[in-house]
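Re-running the complex after MR caught last week's input typo. The corrected sequence lines follow. Everything else is unchanged.
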Amino acid sequence: MKKILVTGGAGFIGSHLIERLLNEGNEVISLDNYFTGDKRNIVHLIKNPLFEIVRHDVTMPYFVEVDQIYNLACPASPIHYQYNPIKTVKTSVMGAINMLGLAKRIRATILQASTSEVYGDPKVHPQTEDYWGNVNPIGIRSCYDEGKRCAETLFMDYHRQNKVDIKIIRIFNTYGSRMHPNDGRVVSNFIVQALKNENITVYGDGNQTRSFQYVDDLVDGMLKMMNSETGFIGPVNMGNPGEFTINELAEKVIKLTNSKSKIIYNKLPSDDPMQRKPDISIAKNKLNWEPKIKLDEGLVKTIDYFKKLLEK
Ligand code: NAD
Ligand code: UDP
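Corrected-run output:
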């Protein structure tokens, strides 16, 4: 049994991670300021005496004694991270400094939830971890992309300078239950639109690609990375290599929901990456990890979740 701090614990991924950590008998603290997260994502876990909930903002220092820290606090959908871009940078950068300072002081292992966005609009396909990326430093996505890139830099420098035991994972588009229904991400948007028989809003011509990973696969990978051998720090890509165009996703969602929705085409937001697909060789070789859940199977589970949510 370990004592574990999860920042961003009330969010989509954080809540699934905490559920799993508690199921495995660990003591867990969720730290969250509820900007995009929701207490309802974790309220069902409160009866577990090994679980504690803290309202706190990672841009401010926080002290606690734990063995492991998962640093997830950061808005993740474009609508949310662009709402207050300065705060997004502060959350990524000051949040990383505060959590790394804590890890250094208490000698905890700390895992950073980085992102495929560090590759920007990639010129290398599929993306390997040694690719430095193609990121616009002054665009509307930069607050998130550059914030996450700077956080990776801080993780590496705390490791080199202060010997902090770090782990970095780069998460590719993840979906599943407890995604925020209005956060604008493509999977939740399409499912909600389809279930309501509203128009499905494809941005651009819909030929841009993404690789979608079901949240349970990601949580498996996060645990494997956190508990991997000391000195294996990453970065490691975590995503499902299955690559789909946004048009293909729209058609799948319409079919699986038996929806009467029609696809409409809206303007493509600026700096929207044209392609994304992870090379997961490192995760396979070092962690013996690869995703198991195919897109159709994960979509069915997610559709079921949103159906129940919309009926409430
Ligand atoms: P989410 O928005 O559901 O969760 C983020 C959580 O962080 C929320 O609960 C939010 O309230 C909290 N938070 C935000 N700012 C905070 C602050 N200043 N102090 C404390 N808490 C704060 O998003 P998610 O999809 O669960 O993403 C979790 C992490 O994984 C993020 O760091 C994100 O960048 C990363 N990630 C997610 C994806 C994805 O596809 N979901 C892809 C790549 C990386
Ligand atoms: N997208 C879309 N319609 C929507 C929401 C998103 O066509 O209603 C597109 C978006 O332009 C992008 C892709 O789907 O090309 C994935 O968008 P998302 O915001 O989910 O993630 P990210 O762009 O960060 O990968």
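None of the earlier attempt is carried over here. The pocket of nicotinamide-adenine-dinucleotide (ligand 1) is lined by residues 7-8, 10-14, 32-37, 57-59, 72-76, 91, 95, 113, 115, 171, 173-174 (CB under 6 Å). The chain is about 40% helix and 15% strand.
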